[in-house]
Amino acid sequence: MFAPLTWFLVALSLAAMVYAVVLAARNKRIDWTVLGALGVIEVALVAQLVVGIVQFAGTDRDVSGPFFIGYLIGSLIILPIGAFWALAESSRWGAGVLAVACLVIPILELRLHDLWAV
Amino acid sequence: MTDPAATKHGPGRILIAVYGVFALAATARAGVQIATKFSDAPIAYLLSAVAAVIYCAATFALAKATNVSRKVATTAIAIELVGVLAIGAFSYAVPDDFPDATVWSHFGQGYGFVPVVLPVLGLLWLRRTR
């Protein structure tokens, strides 16, 4: 795994989560700042998928293929579904939904990191 | 007469989001387990599949938020609560029968114990929005 990309994803996702929690706490709705951050995270996740597949194809490590590729692909659908579900809610709880979605990304990235490190 | 759609708004929005994450995670996990190594631990993997079906049912029923779907959600979440408590207890009592983890093993320890808290919150939310 290309560690800097993984840590970038973890850091940006956590920052976006904190921002979304602050929005919810201040009774604000989702704004373009958090949506923009989600867009950057999603692009980085696509890059992570490409990096992951290339590295998996060329490694002799004992990495569990179905789980590794599954986490890479699964991570791509979290934010779009989360944003869809959040945008249809015209209250602070929409921002709360985005906070949940943002929390899932670091968990998946850390699992990927562990799967690769084994 | 209360509005059944209340279930999917407010805090329920987050509850459904968390249910959706578990529906996705449990389905993917059970799918991979059954497709790649079913014979290793058939009982554990079948329970994983059952858990996946229940999470999916609860997610969609909560999100649909009609009078009928509320009943479906209540049933699914009640089964979920019994399931996580039973599997959680069994996995401590007879660990040999659970050679590989399911989402409900050890009361959902592998998932930060969220699996044991989620059905309680779900039933409380359904009661609150009744």
UniProtKB/TrEMBL annotation, chain A:
Membrane-spanning segments: 34-56, 68-87, 93-112
Domain of life according to the entry: Bacteria
Keyword annotations from UniProtKB, A to Z: Membrane, Transmembrane, Transmembrane helix
Q: What name does the UniProt record give this protein?
A: Integral membrane protein
| Species for this entry | Kribbella kalugense
Automatic annotation (TrEMBL), chain B:
Q: Which UniProt keywords apply?
A: Membrane, Transmembrane, Transmembrane helix
What is the protein named? Integral membrane protein
Could you confirm whether the keyword Transmembrane helix appears in this record? yes
- Membrane-crossing ranges are 12-31, 43-63, 75-94, 106-126
